[in-house]
Amino acid sequence: MQTKYNKVTRFTLSALLLCAIGVGLFFSSCEKDDDDKSSSKIELFSYGPMPVARGGELRFIGNNLDKVTAIVIPDGIEIPASSFTKRTASLLTLTVPQEAVEGYVVLKTPQGNIETKTPIGYSEPISIASFAPATIKPGAQLTITGDYLNLVGEVIFTDRVVVDADDFVSQTRTEIKLVVPAQAQTGKIAVSDGKEDPNIIYSETVLTVTLPAFSTIAPNPVKAGQTLTITGTNLDLTTKVVLGGNKVITTFGTHTATQIVLTVPNDTKDGKVKMIPASEVEVESVATLVMVVPTVSVAPTTVKNGGQITVTGENLDLISQVVFGGNKNGTIAAGGSATEIVVNIPNDAVDGVVSFRTLADKSVEGPALAFVKPVISGVAPLSGKPNTSVTISGSDLDLVADVIFTGGIKGAITTKTETQIIATVPVGAQTGKITLKTVNGTEVQSASPYEVLTNLPNITGYSESTAVPGKILTINGTSLSLIKEMIFPGNIYATAYGLKTDTKVEVYVPKNVSFGFGQITILTYEGEEGLTPSIFFGGTDPIVYPALVYNDFDEEGHSLDWDNWDGISLLMNDGTGVSGKYLKGNAQLDAWAWKFVWGCNHDQLPKPALANAANYVLKVDVRITGNVSNDANRFQFKINGKDSNWTPIGLQNSDGTWSTNGSWVTVTFDLATDLNITGAIGSGGDWGLVVQPAAALDLTKFSFDNFRFEPKP
Q1: What is the per-residue pLDDT for 579?
Q2: At residue 294, does pLDDT exceed 50?
Q3: CA–CA separation, 63 vs 112, rounded Å?
Q4: HSE-up (13 A, CA, CB side) for residue 30
Q5: Which domain-ending residue is among 123, 157, 191?
Q6: Which long-range contacts (CB under 8 A, 24 or more apart) does 656-659 make?
Q7: Can you tell me the distance from the alpha carbon of 142 to that of 156, in angstroms, rounded to the nearest whole number?
Q8: Taking CA 94 as the corner, what is the angle to CA 91 and CA 97, rounded to the nearest 5 degrees?
Q9: What is the pLDDT of residue 28?
């Protein structure tokens, strides 16, 4: 048993003082060598208290005492180290045997025996003869008999529960009567004289402290929100009940010695029931309390997105979530009951089993549901020009989200009912079947193809792989002399052309074209519209303010000998950069790996200082080979010791990935609104680029050059 009195620091202080003055409760046993405090020598400085009570605690203070293998108490009683009640380098404690006699004590050590210089002596005052009853309920009266009990200052119960003499019911030399505290636990009891260095005497037998006990738990299974009745004995000792899911209940409808009635929380889970008294000793039920689950019947089983199902059965009020095929959540309509609920079907649900879940994390499966699909009965007319209307007839057409023409181009829906859709034939559509895509992603096609009537040039491709702003893009094909105008992504009209023939058109890509993959809209002299094949638009902006470049990797002051802080980059000079040297990634990074792509905090090259970041943008030339997922593309700029927002770098594709089609492009960030870099920017502190992808990243796909500021226009 541990008590609040076993404080090693206090014993050590007392021992050292007593060793110095040679009097008191402890006897000096040997001389202490101050020059050898930290040596490996085993030393005994003092032991006590003296006299000590048989059955009491005897303490030895010294150096390296944890190496003592046994202690011999007169007459010849050897106590092995395994029986010490405490064993540290500075303190050993043990319980004095009842048969011990006066004499010298011997400590057995690997360095030889150590015999005390003073004999052990015994006091006879306090002793425990018996206590009654042997089994007792907290709050009842315990009687302890013995001798010199009038000297007892406190009674100690397991575990660290103390009753002071002031709280005894009565106290004489031979008897103590006291009330057992609610926090007491089963175990030996002890009496103490309550002094600074107390004599503590333990009982030889264990006091059994009564705990609450289960008889029945009913009902079982039980419905969440209903009452649960626990019967048993000594239930009035219970301060809280814990149900499955760690639901702690301290408020009871009924609470007597034989019965507890409580309300089961809605989110209770299956599990054992625990009763916990003030002593915090848990009493667990043998039976597992099981939560009731609903029984369900569903109609109809052929359903429509956006419609409803009716669920009948029992205990339906327990249902907190309805999950349709595709793991899509429906919503329970208001006004339901324990025997019937109505559930709204989500638009994006698909064929599959519908399941019903409760707050108790229990699930009941319903039937498999089949979702209605649109039916096309007719398309009229069966041919037409772009920007004209086509009417699609059928059933359940209100489920349609998109009308897609051959070539993967969507037509704008102008009218939609359950039986009819009117859509506009889009520019760029090709002759072929029309596909209807529904709100849940299913697709149906027209039986007959729709003929797109056009008189457009036939474009076979481009001479260049990338459309670079300010440079010529060569379009190849036939009947190209039909082209009147060309509109680039960003709704930018072409203004400059080179050679124009029936098989080739050279057009200068506008400098402010939108970067990324896109198509050019062509207008013919007859007023028809068409689209060229997709091509990548991109390039780098010229460096207009050389003094605002803070790293172009061409200066020796930014050599990777200095700036490759995490060793994940290469300095390249292979002639494929924007101009001169550039930085290329050279590592495979795990998700959430935090690394410097490059870093700089030295003064070999001065950094540009800005009076107000809000007046500037940051430009970076970047090249990405292949596609990079949105999660993996996660970078942070360090500027003058300031950290930017985490941001992707590059151009985002329609599928959410990022790339530059292997070309160098300039990406631009507003320092304040995009990166959250504000205020003045000085030339010192940390500068660089940090990467911490949320998914694994192949950094070798990235190359960087020309980190620079530019005033806003």
Answers
A1: 85
A2: yes
A3: 15
A4: 19
A5: 123
A6: 656/629, 656/630, 657/627, 657/628, 657/629, 657/630, 658/624, 658/627, 658/628, 658/629, 658/630, 658/633, 659/624, 659/626, 659/627, 659/628
A7: 13
A8: 155
A9: 46
SS3 118: coil
Q: CATH number for the domain including 86?
A: 2.60.40.10
Gap between the Cα atoms of 97 and 95, Å rounded? 6
Peptide bond into 166 cis (omega under 30): no
C-beta of residue 694 within 8 angstroms of C-beta of residue 589: no
Which structural domain range is residue 485 located in?
Answer: 458-537
Structure tokens at 623: 């090249």
Q: What is the pLDDT of residues 635-658, one digit of tens each?
A: 999 999 999 999 999 999 888 999
Instruction: With respect to residue 306, please indicate whether it lies within any of the assigned structural domains.
Output: yes
pTM of the model: 0.57
418-472 pLDDT, tens digit per residue, is 999 999 999 888 899 999 999 999 999 999 999 998 888 999 999 998 899 999 9
Please report the pLDDT score of residue 37 as a whole number. 47
Query: Residue 408: which of 382, 387, 435, 374 has the closest Cα?
Result: 435
CB 180 within 8 A of CB 134: no
Closest by CA to 310, choosing from 366, 272, 258, 358, is 366
Could you give the percent of the chain with pLDDT greater than 90? 79
Give the number of domains in the chain: 7
Q: Are residues 159 and 114 in the same domain?
A: no
In a domain, 177, yes or no: yes
Same domain, 235 and 270: yes
Parallel, antiparallel or unpaired: strands 521-524 and 483-488? antiparallel
Structure confidence at residue 558 (pLDDT):
58
Are 570 and 701 in a shared domain?
yes
Same domain flag for 688 and 559: yes
Query: Which one of 348, 371, 394 terminates a domain?
Result: 371
Q: Which pLDDT belongs to residue 124? A: 64
With contact defined as beta carbons under 8 Å apart, do 580 and 552 qualify?
yes
Answer with the residue of higher pLDDT: 148 or 647.
647
Is 3 among the domain residues?
Answer: no
Do 160 and 246 lie in a common domain? Answer: no
| 165 found inside a domain | yes
Same domain? For 572 and 424 the reply is no
* Exposure of 388 in the CB half-sphere (CA atoms within 13 A): 14
Task: Kindly state whether residues 622 and 638 are assigned to the same domain.
Answer: yes
Which alpha helices (DSSP H) does 60-179 contain, by range? none
Token pair, residue 565, equals 């802080």
Residue with the two structure tokens 């090709």: 430
CATH number, domain containing residue 632: 2.60.120.260
SS3 for 171-236, per residue? Answer: ECCCEEEEECCCCCEEEEEEEECCCCCCCEEEEEEEEEECCCEEEEEECCCECCCCEEEEEEECHH
Mean pLDDT for 591-597 is 96
Tokens of 129: 């003869």
Mean pLDDT, the chain, rounded, equals 90
DSSP output for 147-178: ESGGG--EEEEETTEEEEGGG-SEE-SSEEEE
Question: Based on the domain organization, do 48 and 115 belong to the same domain?
Answer: yes
pLDDT tens per residue across span 304-356: 999 999 999 999 999 999 999 999 999 999 999 999 999 999 999 999 999 99
| C-alpha 593, offset from chain centre | 16
